[in-house]
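Appendix B. One record, verbatim.
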Amino acid sequence: MLDRYARQLIDPPLNQLGRRVAAQGLTANDVTFIGLPLGLLAAVCIALGWFTLALFPLLASRLADGLDGAVARATQKTDFGGYLDIAADFLFYGVIPMAFVMHNPAENGAAGAFLLASFYFNGTTFLGYAILAEKRGHTTDAQGQKSLYYSNGILEGTETIVFFVLLCLFPSAFPVLSWIFGALCFATATLRLIAAKNIYKD
């Protein structure tokens, strides 16, 4: 819901930085491969209970996630690059809740499982919608220039990053926040299914 507004703020400086990074010879895929280990490192920190420390690699990984697209726009966008980027994103989105569950299975297990199920459902509707949009030739740049169709929703990347930051700042609130966020993810996915049914009729 907030991505289109966040993009208006972050895209200009990211694009400028992307041109500088590209001038150093780094590719968009290189930046993706830098960002993913940072996200995994954040998950390790969370699992060990180093929640505040986890914020640094977590936010750095999200910077890299935005920067890889900027580098691609400054050089050449590729289908594999877009595919790699979304795969790395989904892995990151999965390991952060998993890390909280690993840190405290007794208190976080049920809420973590619910949250991951909501991510799974939401991700499926997101990618399925992108396939249908590609098949029908539909395009959008509401969330910036992307390699695949980004359908909007109640919760998008911006909200998820804010959610992860809140979890690191208030780790004891993981169960409550996860039940709420997971319910909103299910609502987002359901609304996307309804939209697809109405738009992509045979």
